[in-house]
Specification:
This protein is globular. The protein has a domain at about 45-74. α1 packs antiparallel against α2 and α2 (about 50-60) packs across α3 (about 65-70). The protein is built from three helices and no strands. With about 70 residues, the protein is an all-alpha fold.
C-alpha cells in the first residue's frame, strides 16, 4: 500500500505534537485501566504498561520503547 495520508505537509506543522498526542491516546486505548505516565521525570517500569507501550512504539514506526517513552511521555 503506497497511499499517502497527506499530499503535502506544511513546514509550520508541528508534527511532533501530533505524534505525541497520538502516542498518548494509543497508550490509553491499549491500557484503559491505566492513566498516562507522569511527565517531567524519568519513568520507572511501574509507571506504564509495557505491552501497550510496545504497541504504541510499533504504531509510530519504532522498534524501541525507549524512544517513545523519552520523546512522547516526558
Amino acid at each position: 500500500m503506497n497511499e499517502h495520508v497527506f499530499d503535502h505537509i506544511p513546514k509550520a506543522m508541528d508534527v511532533q505534537s501530533y505524534r505525541r498526542a497520538s502516542a498518548q491516546q494509543r497508550d490509553l486505548s491499549h491500557a484503559p485501566d491505566r492513566t498516562l505516565p507522569p511527565a517531567g521525570r524519568r519513568l520507572k517500569p511501574t509507571d506504564y504498561d509495557i505491552t501497550a507501550m510496545h504497541q504504541v512504539s510499533r504504531a509510530l514506526g519504532h522498534e524501541c520503547t525507549d524512544v517513545v517513552l523519552n520523546h512522547y511521555f516526558r
